[in-house]
Design goal:
The structure is a homohexamer.
Chain A: H1 6-12, H2 17-26, E1 38-39, E2 47-58, H3 67-77, E3 83-87, E4 95-97, H4 99-107, E5 112-115, E6 118-119, H5 122-128, E7 132-134, E8 146-151, E9 155-157, E10 160-162, E11 167-171, E12 174-178, H6 183-205, H7 219-235
Parallel strand pairs in A: 2-3, 3-5, 4-6, 5-7
Antiparallel strand pairs in A: 1-7, 2-8, 2-11, 9-10, 11-12
Chain lengths: 236, 236, 236, 236, 236, 236
């Protein structure tokens, strides 16, 4: 199973998905943000963890025997610290999971759940405290539309490829996927970028023009940023 | 007009649409949850009541004389305790109703309004206190897109057939339709299921595995559930 | 640049987009409400101002040199009191703008931003205090999908034509466009309509029937409205 | 039942749906062309006739007894010379009708079938010779998705209101709806417009500029048109 | 690998997908017809064969090494007589395959190709003679959008679950999936149904009412059908 | 105005859009194929020429005076040999042009018309002989939905950026855009690729494996290709 250093996990929980997609895009990874996947509530907790995947295919009335165990197995086997990512083919007509399944993930120490379908009993899911992302609430039981196919294969979720072990980060705007072999570097760069953005926001709020400041820092902005950082660490 | 016993109305207001769609699905009713219909605000009040229906068709410039009266009539004739369910063909480009119409429904003792189109002045609608469900806010007056056709015929709403007198239940996740001839049994079963779910949630939160617990209760879980119920009633 | 009298701006900030679309519709303007464009949060501040426009076209890898400057220019040149309206072809797969750009608009005294695509870092955008409307949050940087084409031409936004100088009004339900040559009359009529609606809401809440009251006021309702207005001004 | 004079029926079968929608638009009827409804084959025969309507709502597993008879009744009762227009809510996941139903309509002298859902066994339908329009081929039997609700009420089809007795005209581009009270005037105007268009096409093919010719005829074009008409009748 | 008797293959190539979906529906299999998947040309040859599956996921720029081989392998390993069924997540923005890949399948004796994405160079594909079904033509190379993930797992195609070995049948209206364990019975029943439909079509063409004839045969229709079959075999 | 050498024009008319998108993709241009834009008939003539653009925005009832002239001007000013490319925002609810406009383009020596909306009177358009591409037939006059905004600016069409002077190529599968500064090299490479594909198709038809042949030619295939070319030129 993939590991994630404490420092990287901590960094990723303090930077935005906008910062991360920007960095990934500069590295040539252009399709890493899940489309039409949102937190079940705007105030859901931040989510960071390696992906454990489950794949749904459309239900088949002659294959129902296979249904329950795979879903249950996902909830029992997704490793602690990991995020269960579900390929529901973007179909929210029936639920991908509900509050008891999410409660089990939470109890087992998992870091979150993401589906490009829907979650049911979202009030109950929210109460479990598990960070949860989906397309929209969906009360019908999964078996009306979905058949669980397999665990921990590469999947599609929200139009993005998710491989087991990919690092999943969620904030109030959505969910981003980071390849594990570059996650430490991405996290470090994200912290630096976030600091500069904070500086730029303050400058802008004080009336400074974007020219030479954002996007892209000119010589003057770089000097001012260094000074700002110094003042800041002095102040703390 | 359809009647709904006090006990059943009370039970339905305490169980989730996820529980209800699960029970309906086990009875072979697979398409009873309205798709893409949500409460106008996450904290809207619970809604229970028999359906009174209104049907829109697309506007026709040569038929405008017929417009106003049918809509007004719907607001004046939807019986107290009932839910006005509107077939807007899933089209939210113009409103299905607004705050004054909803205020009238509320004043007449109606139980809610549901449309698969949009509602206008949602702040005003929210203030009336009427539980209200729609696809999204829509400010334009209905006549730009819709023509009211008739009242109290079977309609489509959110991709679901709604017959006058069907029992409509709404919570924060959406809206479910229950045939009136089975509503008492469904409500009773829903209470029992909700109780078991509550037990299972507690067990799961304490670290119990899903195996033999959910979905489907094994012998041990059944015994534990009985004991839990006893403790619970003793405690109260 | 378009001007907007203080009285009209003030009136427009107190009336709903539903009232305004109703008045525009009666004047034959049927397509003035942006479809699928919402405030980034339900409690975003009211927005009123003339439009300054920016147009995106799809990204072209051989034209990237042209990207940054136009977007930056929009943020630096949108006049104070104006609303930046962005034609993103309804495509929210990548952001139209983020918190630093929005911060600059706010610092320069602009009245808001509207896009039919997405905004990134919506938490940061919200903190700037700039009224902001979009289709949905979108973290990826704009350059993955969009190429800024030009400023201050007539554009499409949310399926509506927006000409530079058109008056843009946003509330919790969405955004409406008003031609500048009729905006004073529309604002005045909107105040009157809002007053009558307030009267009608109170009457309806007290149990009065819609017949002769709404939509369309009968003789009796007109008299009652006059009396209500008198009582009201006497009371204040 | 609506009647259609021989002259008007004949005229309508010789003019295009583009000409007809143009004329209707000039009369203020802007939404009369069915969206996403096509002939089952490009070389389907022209279709003209008054509408007889059938309405589907979504299937309900507890209402299946009502299914068959209404559909069968539609095929037996649609009057000769009429077009059966089906409201399938734009849903082609299951068929609206198939070759045997269409064969019965043909045998009874009906003028065509239109649905905004799908037709099954389109090869068989084509062989019956009945003009048939739909959204796309759909093999599954209607009962998987649809429940017939009623006959000869106003319906929505392809986003357009269709009232029983409305005149339905189809060509290779699609289907247009004409109110029966203006159909004679519209047909006459369409013949005249078609004649002018023919003249303009010839002129354009010979190299004439559009200025003063199309759209809108200037004085010179009017004179040339008169001369063209004379030459033409002289030639025949 | 799945086998298909000569008799069943022959029967399936003479019956329509509408007949087959009807029979499957009566056996409780309601979702076996691929949605939005069509022959690349209306006059494509009939297709029958067991499924061999390939699954695409969205492209990932850091995984490109894995791309080519899997796709090539599919074309080399799909067994003779089988249909290659491709899960392209319904995304036709880039091709699933082109004329050279299809030519290889044809040369190896495969029975067809089906994708819920697009095919490129459809003229070349048509010339290979391989029955080919897709959503729409798509010229861009697959790697712009798709990453091949694996072969011969259960997949989703056109909203339907396809398991390796399922029997795939295509005609001019689309594609149906039949479980292999019932395919012989389904094929036999389909021949019988097709014969009755032929009889009913003839009767209807001669003016017979649908009552007691279709859907569902009454006593008289059954007797007439027996007589018709006798006349027919006597005539041949 | 852009020029296009005879050799390049001729080459482009003999290679497929699939070959061209492949070459553009290898040069890093990934979004050059128009999505959901097709020839009005499968047997439409090949189209090659530089782009002249027209942009529609949504109709505004207070701006109708501006409508006609811009559209007429487009037909009169699109230079001979050029393709008129129309940005209709992907909206085919009303026509982008019809047979008389297309006839004028043809008479003036233009090379084709492309819109991501619809064309009306497609039978008449086809008769003009002008290569024409659209999303689907659309009979309603453009003014119901569209307002012409301007000519010869960069636009979006089918989700692709089109700059005036870009080279537009259409075949039976759709339309591709080529930057003018690389068009000669792309055309030359396309001829070479097409030749190799022809060789590979023949080899595959004779039973050769894809390994080392396609995609990507191994040493052996390269030698065989050289021999094939020699035999071929010898044979001719």
């Amino acid at each position: 199973m993939a590991e994630l250093s404490h420092a990287t996990r901590s960094a990723l929980s303090r930077v935005g998905t906008s910062t991360l997609t920007g960095i990934l895009s500069r590295r040539g990874l252009r399709n890493m943000f899940l489309q039409e996947v949102w937190p079940i509530r705007p105030d859901v907790a931040r989510m960071v963890g390696p992906a454990f995947t489950m794949r749904f295919i459309p239900v088949r009335e002659d294959k129902t025997a296979a249904r329950g165990p795979v879903q249950q197995q996902a909830m029992e086997e997704c490793p602690p610290g990991h995020v269960l990512v579900v390929d529901a083919r973007g179909d929210p007509r029936a639920a991908s999971a509900g509050d008891i399944y999410c409660g089990r993930l939470k109890a087992r120490g998992c870091a979150g759940i993401v589906t490009d379908g829907g979650l049911r009993d979202t009030e109950g899911v929210f109460k479990t405290g598990l960070p949860a992302y989906h397309r929209r609430p969906s009360s019908p039981p999964s078996g009306i539309v979905h058949q669980p196919a397999d665990l921990n294969l590469p999947i599609a979720c929200g139009g993005v490829a998710v491989y087991p072990g990919d690092i999943i980060v969620g904030d109030c705007d959505g969910v981003v996927v980071i390849p594990p072999d570059i996650v430490d570097a991405v996290a470090e760069e994200a912290l630096a970028t976030t600091l500069y953005d904070e500086f730029a926001e303050e400058e802008v709020a004080r009336g400074r023009s974007l020219l030479g400041l954002f996007p892209g820092a000119g010589e003057e902005a770089k000097r001012d940023f260094e000074a700002w950082k110094k003042r800041r660490s002095g102040a703390s």
